[in-house]
Fold:
Amino acid sequence: MGERVLMKGNEAIAEAAIQAGCRFFFGYPITPQNELPEYMSRRMPQVEGTFVQAESEVAAINMVYGASGAGARVMTSSSSPGISLKQEGISYMAGAELPAVIVNIVRGGPGLGSIQPSQGDYFQAVKGGGHGDYRLIVLAPANLQEAVDLVTEAFDLADLYRNPVLILGDGLLGQMMEPVEFRPGTKRELPPKTWATTGTRHHVGSKSVINSLVLDAPGLENHNLRLQAKYARIAQDEQKAELLHCTDAEVVVVAYGSTARIAKTAIGNLRQLGHKVGLLRPITLWPFPVHAFQEVIPHAKTFLTVEMSSGQLVEDVRLTVNGARPVHYYGRMGGMVPTHEEISAECLKVLGGAR
Amino acid sequence: MAKVNFIEERCKGCELCTAVCPVKIVVMADRINRRGFRPAMVVDMQKCIACAACARICPDAVIEVEK
Amino acid sequence: MAKVFERPKSLVDMQTHYCPGCTHGIIHRLIAEVMDELNFADRAIGVAPVGCAVLGYLYFTCDMQEAAHGRAPAVATGIKRVVPDGVVFTYQGDGDLASIGCAEIVHAAARGENITTIFVNNGIYGMTGGQMAPTTLPGDKTSTSPYGRDTKKQGFPIRVSEMLSTLDGPAYVARVSVHTVPHIIRARRAIKKAFQYQIAGQGFTLVEVLSTCPTNWGLTPLEALDKLAKDMLPYYPLGEYKDIEAGAKQ
Structure:
């Protein structure tokens, strides 16, 4: 603790999981996250943990289901196409209320796409991806220290709410190297996993069943109402965002992850030139940080959403702003990363009323 | 002395037991149980040899055998 | 008078949803009998499939997990890695295991995961209304092979036990049947052996149980047993296809 280590993003995320007590990892190779399972394959035996390279991302998420159902802290990681494969398993886990941490190092899509960074999986992460009425807690780090801190947070949130948590990274974060410090997170009171399938010897008199099948409609509606109540509690208590220079901002840039980091450079430069620009950086993509928007809307003149996707984040910004202010969009796709010059130029366009 | 006990209310009338009894004392009743199935039953209990063939083929574990 | 045969304790005392004469009931009971005899119900964790046995989690007294279709071997892998002294088993039909779950069963077997799979092979998809299965016999009529399975267009059945026995990971692979009482007794023996091997840490074990589906075969339960004997036995020969102990003895 207190020691800073220079690490590659994928590896730092893996190490953070180990530090958070994760002892089971099931994964499959896919670029640009391969260093994560590779690191786990070296590190897990060192901490007497378990690493399995599964036969597919489908198999991996189902191994996560089983291990989580048996009460363990467990992680899987993948990138966009592999996360698509996991959607059935993720829906099952949400329905069965199983905790786990899933890491998506997003690449260009759709389809096989590219191996360059992207944010094109926003809808998949935040709006479902899998079938049915469920939500994932989605955390979006913007640098490696934050990634490492959010991994620790993710395991606690997963256990606290009995829900899968998704860390939405991108190829830049996965591949870059930065110094990180592994530090314990906020202490949370976590309930014991009395529901886990460890054998009835451990809970004599009752049997644990991990299941998402509820064949009678009223029963399934009740189950869904309980889940929705849980999501409402999460939405109330777990929103997270960063506000930078927003108090007097005329244009508020909304961006997350690596895009936000690039936007910070643009905003810094624009501020130097006297322009009133700020940044609202969602850290939780679900729950969407509506409280932060409520703080900012009264003073802001307009919003500019910048994303490495076709216009996914901007939909939630528009929903939240709800017509109170104009909302603009600028984005790159296919693995292209915006430069801070591009973002500055867009801000100036918005400031000048040209958009 | 041997005795078999059929839990009639659980029987689904599949008739598998009637085919395997070596002394042919298992038959289907004329009456129906609460679920609408005609349950299996034993006629001539004194011929029972407690082989438990009926119990072993019963998919619903409806049959107990005593000796 | 002493009880010569009674309902196993590891079977929950409730009526099942299975059709009259369905061999699922016999197989469930055999597993429960072995659980009683080897006394492992309190450390057993079963994984139920999608198929007729989807409600299997209701019928055993041990901890259970419901898996997605075909994924039971992966779910079981996760469980066994977390609870290595648990007795972990999957219970799967021919669609679950040999169709959608073909990758999962092959790889769990290849990895030598210390789990036991009970594979119920009745050559048809029961729950969804009688469609063709990977194990449907050539010529057999199903709701998706209404003219009879045409091997030219719909391919050939998969012999799972033979296929898995070529891998090094499995410790025991056997095919049994439940269409007569002597066969049921032999099936029970194979299931017991499979679980014993798991408890001894020998590797992956699988027992393929030839079964009937009276409802979707359009036959009475008794007629269905005859069809199993006449049609299935020649295509799916019974026997122990892999036995790690038998090999060592030679």
Notes: The longest helix of chain B spans residues 16-20. The longest strand of chain B covers residues 3-6.
